[in-house]
Amino acid sequence: MQLDHDNAIPLHVQLKAILEKQIADGKLNGQIPTERDFMEYYNVSRSTVREAVNLLVREGILEKRHGSGTFVSIKPIHQWLGNLTSTTELIRQMGMKPGAKLIDAYKMTPEAYIQEKTDFNDAFFIKRVRYADDIPIGVESHYYPLDIGEAIVKYDLNDTTLYEIEENELGILFAEASQVIGIDIIPDEEALHLNIPRMSHVLAAERVIKDYQGSTVEFEKAYYRSDMFNFQINLSRKFG
């Protein structure tokens, strides 16, 4: 991918986006190339390279080590489609430290489209920021039937996995989930929580979870930083 010198988007912003994608795809890891390498490959000035790199350093994606150079400081978190896995489990599988911060928890009336997906006329709402190695990677909003939500909120939601509470403490047996993933512009409030610019494009995911009775036990709407989260699926070709 090359820079578009005729584009109205500043070159350092374009370069930052390219480097973010390379990191998310695993193509750029460990120590990154030198400023000179980037200047020659992308045909840009030293100041353009420095601005792009400094933005990534401020976001915690790159880190500068005195006397050694600049290194990728994070590993993208891969989610395998087809598995009902919690964010905490995914982060641990990547060898990183999971974390959470409770933002909101209250009874509410969901939006009409959520009611249609869940049959929740009333719901208990829980919003948390999710962290990997103390870097904010996503904002997750959960909608529960009132009895489930009121039971969950009694636990320390800054230091536990919601799935573990539901399964191990409340005895809920997950049967299946449907998930829709797309690209969206992050709402301003969520951008602040993730420490990313307003109007950033992020991964948006909606998940509906049902139990073995076919009842919806959770609806989740989440925004994840696209530079730190990607989804992977295995496909097989059937013959005959």
UniProtKB/TrEMBL annotation:
An MF annotation (GO) of this entry: DNA binding
Keywords, sorted A to Z: DNA-binding, Transcription, Transcription regulation
GO BP annotations listed: negative regulation of DNA-templated transcription
Pfam families: GntR, UTRA
Source taxon at top rank: Bacteria
Residues in HTH gntR-type domain copies: 9-75
Record bears the keyword Oxidoreductase: no
InterPro entries attached to this UniProt entry: Bact_HTH_transcr_reg, Chorismate_lyase_/UTRA_dom_sf, Tscrpt_reg_HTH_GntR, UTRA, WH-like_DNA-bd_sf, WH_DNA-bd_sf
UniProt protein name: GntR family transcriptional regulator
Originating organism: Lentibacillus kapialis
